[in-house]
Amino acid sequence: MAYLKFLGTSDAWGVPRLLCSCRVCTSHEAKNKRMRPSAFLQTDDEQILLDISPDFYQQFQAYNTGVVPRTVLVTQPQHSHTGGLNDYADLCNRQHAPALIISPPDIIDGLRQQYAHLEADGGIQFLATRETFIYPWHVTFQHVHPESDAYTLLFHGPEASWAYMPTPLPDLPESRQLLRELDLLIVGISAPPSGQYQSHSNNVCTKKRIQHMLALQQQLAIRTLIFTCLTHNLYPPDINNYLSPTIRFAQDGMEIQVPV
Ligand SMILES: [Zn+2]
Fold it and tell me: Less Cβ crowding at N or C end of the chain, within 10 Å?
């Protein structure tokens, strides 16, 4: 048995965005309050963080179980996915719980330069690798976005496989092949770049994105799809009618079982 709790489900800027007057950012619904992206993974033996967002301080206060996660898998070097490292290292130091930050060499090289003082303090260590084992999964960092420095985490277990992709799915055959027949895909979803759907409302834009992902889910035979890393101009409450039972939106604090 293993479960995942979403600690943050926004894009890089959080929802609401500061001083934004859009329909989502002015909404009072809990679904529209989102911290920067990160997730907490609990197995029988370990607690793992998937990314460590700049909102880590608030996330740990809100959701901690009294245990400091000792492993962090980092999917991309941006501040939105690593900005909590200072707070985390301080926590590890004070709790005498040194932790391991695992990511591919290109990301670890950058983190080592930026956070050399944290490693020297002894609170955290960095490990550069593209694969690791977290029982019961073989975990690999997959570079599915050729023009991006983001990685996708693929978890292969004895009976099932799943992936954490906190970025939108690239429209490439090789990327799709990698995700085929997954039991669970947690994937980022954002509004299209400016210029597309310009004449439509946010709601129409959201529907088009969802319809696209529904079609993809069927094509790739992905059992369950969960959207995270939502931009502020996507509006989940209005599009629930377009979802199937195997597709849902993540929210901060939401907990799911993950396949093993
Ligand atoms: Zn907004």
Answer: N
Q: Give me the residue label for tokens 């319809």.
A: 211
Domains (range + CATH), the chain: 3-257 (3.60.15.10)
pTM for the model: 0.93
3-state DSSP of the chain: CCEEEEEECECCCCECCCCCCCCCCCCCCHHHCECCCEEEEECCCCEEEECCCCCHHHHHHHHCCCCCCCEEECCCCCHHHHCCHHHHHHHHHHCCCCEEEEECHHHHHHHHHHCHHHHHHCCEEEEECCEEEECCEEEEEECCCCCCCCCEEEEECCCCEEEEECCCCCCCHHHHHHHCCCCEEEEECCCCCCCCCCCCCHHHHHHHHHHHHHHHHHHHCCCEEEEECECCCCCHHHHHHHCCCCEEECCCCCEEECCC
Q: How far is the CA of 25 from the centre of ligand 1 (A)?
A: 4
User: How far, in Å, from the CA of 134 to the mean position of ligand 1?
Assistant: 38
Spacing, Cα 206 to ligand 1 middle (Å): 14
Q: Give percent of the chain with pLDDT exceeding 90.
A: 66
pLDDT tens digits for range 168-180: 888 788 888 899 9
**CA–CA separation, 43 vs 173, rounded Å?**
32
